[in-house]
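Changelog-adjacent note: as of this version, every example in the card shows the full chain rather than a window. The one below runs 158 residues end to end.
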Amino acid sequence: MYTDPIYNMLKLKVPPPLVLLISAVLMWLLSELFPTTNENSLRLFIAPTIAIIGIIIAVSGILSFRRAATTVNPLKPERATSLVIVGIYKFTRNPKYLGLLFILIAWSVYLFSLYSALMLIVFVLYLTEFQIKPEEKALTVLFGDDYVAYTKSVRRWV
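Full-length structure tokens:
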């Protein structure tokens, strides 16, 4: 069994795509429980546009990691070979999670439900506390002062 403390910090985390899926289902349930009577057909254009932006943001983060030949799996920080601070990482430390958030924003727009939009806050709070903060601890252990300096110059979300 792998006993590295970095691994142990992250081993029980729910994968972010699963958090996205759970959040999306809860958003749909909220929109069904508290339906909105005032529909807006513009949402059918706006929602896909926001989702595409989210996909572009997330894929940009993944491609930056691939170019640096480092792992894209946040649950395996011991495999990180380099600190990626170029490309989209100049603007956000978590483009993959920001992309997922944009996808949920698009879903909320499509559902046209204020109650479902409340799940966006829950999503951000959950990912920040249970995924991002442990990753930040792991990256601090792996990359030390370089990572700390990076966190001071680039925000966690945007």
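Structural remarks: Residues 27 and 119 are 6 Å apart (CA to CA).
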